[in-house]
Structures are given as structure tokens and as C-alpha cells.
Amino acid sequence: MDNSAQNDYWNGPAGQKWVRDAERLDAMLRPFAIAVVDAVRPEAGETAIDIGCGAGALSLMLARAGAQVTGVDISAPLVQLARQRADAEGLGAQFQVADASLWRPAELAQIAVSRFGVMFFAQPAKAFHNIRAGMAPGGRLVFACWQPLAVNEWALLPIATAMPFLKEAPAPPPPGAPGPFAFGDNAVVESVLSESGWSGVRVSPWEGLMELPGASAEETADFMMEIGPLARAMADQGIDAAPVKAALVARVRELAGETGSTRLKAAAWIVEARA
What we know:
Elements: H1 4-10, H2 13-20, H3 22-40, E1 47-51, H4 57-64, E2 68-73, H5 76-89, E3 94-97, E4 109-115, H6 124-133, E5 135-146, H7 153-162, H8 186-195, E6 199-211, H9 217-226, H10 229-237, H11 241-256, E7 263-274
Parallel strand pairs: 1-2, 1-4, 2-3, 4-5
Antiparallel strand pairs: 5-7, 6-7
């Protein structure tokens, strides 16, 4: 299966942005990592795989609980940062630069987890079949993936605010195309996992407010323009950033109010299955 487009993306400027913003992104996404850990309930000594581990935040949470973790990600810059973080804490987590749709662990794993790292496979069913092949019988899979864009205000609001400055509305991706919202339809998630041999599939909603990074409206606006669907739309259309940022700053100031923080609605699925 050809995941070369994702390889190029995550080893290019996008990967470097995620390295630069790792601390802020991990803080923003921490509620979802906690939800995954709470669902999988790791025990000391269990072997675990973190799929699309990024800078290793979820891997390190499992390692602190005593699991023997291997994080796998296609992005070399993010894996390098994950290794540095593990070394700094003296944790034994291991990290591999690899495509999880093809890679398998040397030892069958008892746990497989992911925090928004499973929606980018070119052929999802084949990828999850390969992941299952690396699991011990009865092994537990738990991952977080986004519900549809339409119910994720954190991603939708920046695009709506920037619409007057865009040349055209961003085209929705083709059904099933790799991307952040590829598993927005929970029926698609269930179908992919069942087709790839997983059993006991359970999809539970996570809905709440997510705090965006930024100590000021300007910083939060910069974040909105660099991470998420708006960033891709601006890059694709060659949009002048200045008027977009001004509009975002004004909108963020409206939203932040007295607290000074920008909290927007987020909706994800917490998916569980057994090998």
C-alpha cells in the first residue's frame, strides 16, 4: 500500500511544525490521551504499541504505568523528539520510524493504542489487518479519532472566519480519503475493523471543550493558521496571511472573554476492539 504522500507530509514542514509545537499540542490533546489510557487500562509489564505516536506523549503515559511500549511513526523528526523525551525521563519506551501499516513488532503485543494516528492509512482495512497480526490473542486495541468536521468547532471556526479571504471554500475530501476526519462516520470505523478481523468493536463518543494553545489572541490565531484544515487551505490557495490573522485575532478575543483562554467544541470517537 502506498503511504508515500503521508511520508512526505510528515517528514517535511508539517512534521517540523509538530515538533516545534509538541508541548502545546500535547497539552491541547491530553484529554484524549487520558481517555485512551483509561479505556485500555494498561498493567505493568504488558507490551504495547502506540500507532502514529508522534512526539510520544501517549507512549510515555503508558510507560509511566509500567507498560513496555514501542511507539511507531512515519515522521523521523517526531520520533527523534519522542526518544529525547523518553531519555529525559529515564523511561524505557522504544520508538521506531516506520509505517504502522507494514511494520510488525518482534514480540506480539497485548495492547495497541493511538491518539489520532490511525486516520491516514491509504488502505485502512489492510493496515488494521497488519496491526492485528502483531497482537497476541485477545489483545486490546483502543484509539481516538475525530468525529466529522461539522461537529468539531476547533477546526471549523477558523475556516469559517477566514472564508471571506479564501478564493474558494475548501473542497471536502473524497469519502474514505486519508486525513484527520477519515473516520468521522462511526459506521466506517466499525466496518474497517470488522473487515480486518477485529472483534468486539465498540465506538463511544467523546464530546467537550478543547483549549487551544496561545497566551494571547495573536498566538492562538497563529496556531489556527498553522495547524488544522485552515493551514492546508491557505497553503493550497496561496492566501495572504495578514488579513486572515487580523480576522482570527478579533474572533479569538470575542471567544476568550474574561478567562483569556480559547475553548472550542471538540468531538471524537474512542474506539475499542479485540484481536
